């Protein structure tokens, strides 16, 4: 999607579709959203059902399709599905687990069928931290070997990192490692306590803010793009910084695109970053291995099933998804925050903490202007 091309209406089409091909995986990650098992579920979407889903996604024109799991390489038809999606004009990337399934031959096949990018997870700058987090000894070495293969094949590499209490002290070391590995995108995830993820593994609200400010500080000096997941309030930090720099402009507005859209590639979405802020159910949607549709994999609220209705119909008509696309309905400080249209807070984390996906982001330290005004009136 290049400058000048119409930005998609997130009420009509998502920007990113995540499809959990299977929950089968050989790893035992401490934070696993899917609580992955070693064997495949016999009720997974079939190859034919998968191709019908891809047809629907292709008809929506805009979405990027991400194959995830579990481990998508546990499905024998993964490359058949990828090739079909590419033939239909869909941008496809994949996030396999670093297991013996990740061979150079598998990567060559992915390149041959036209996958746009391959993503690997690295949650520590050494094997002690990473292997502990992934629950599998040897995972770090397998990941590094796979990345070596990927670079040899000249395939674009994305590295995913989950920020938690296990690695927050080593961010500079992580940045240096990501740079050495020749990646095009560092996707930084912030833990949501769902699946195997635990509250005690999460960093504090103040630490979220510190990491956001650090990412904003380094983003223009590193040779890769940076994207965040379950960290919508990072956008607020970036925009606040832009507004401070443009303080002389009295007409400056809170605009996500101005702050984040100009990736190093010069395209609007800069290697997979949306041209405006996405959130759970708002430009983003998740399909489970058995066809259930959720606002995201971290927000397990069922909105329908693609075996019953098309994804496009569910995305546009689900009352749950419609409510998530209306920031004015958010509760607490998120509902009055001046950044709610570009941020909105993590709906997944709100749900995990309160049981209500419309509640405020519980790990944001920012106090909206409206709340500050009310405090001044009551104390003035």
CATH topology of the largest domain: TIM Barrel
Q: Which class best fits the helix and strand makeup?
A: alpha/beta
| Uncertain stretches of 5 or more adjacent residues | 1-5, 256-272
Q: Look at the structure and give the CATH class of the largest domain.
A: Alpha Beta
Residue fraction in strands: 5-15%
CATH architecture of the largest domain: Alpha-Beta Barrel
Give the tally of β-strands. Answer: 10
CATH superfamily of the largest domain: Aldolase class I
Helix percent reads: 25-40%
Shape descriptor = globular
The separation of the N and C termini measures 50 Å
Major β-sheet, in short? 10 strands, mixed
Mean pLDDT reading: 86
What are the secondary-structure elements, in order, as H or E? EHEHEHEHHEHEHEHHEEEHHHHH
Number of structural units classed as domains: 2
Supply Rg.
20 Å
Tally of helical runs: 14
Protein name: Radical SAM protein, BA_1875 family
GO molecular function: 4 iron, 4 sulfur cluster binding; catalytic activity; metal ion binding
Domain Radical SAM core: 11-244
Pfam families: Radical_SAM (PF04055)
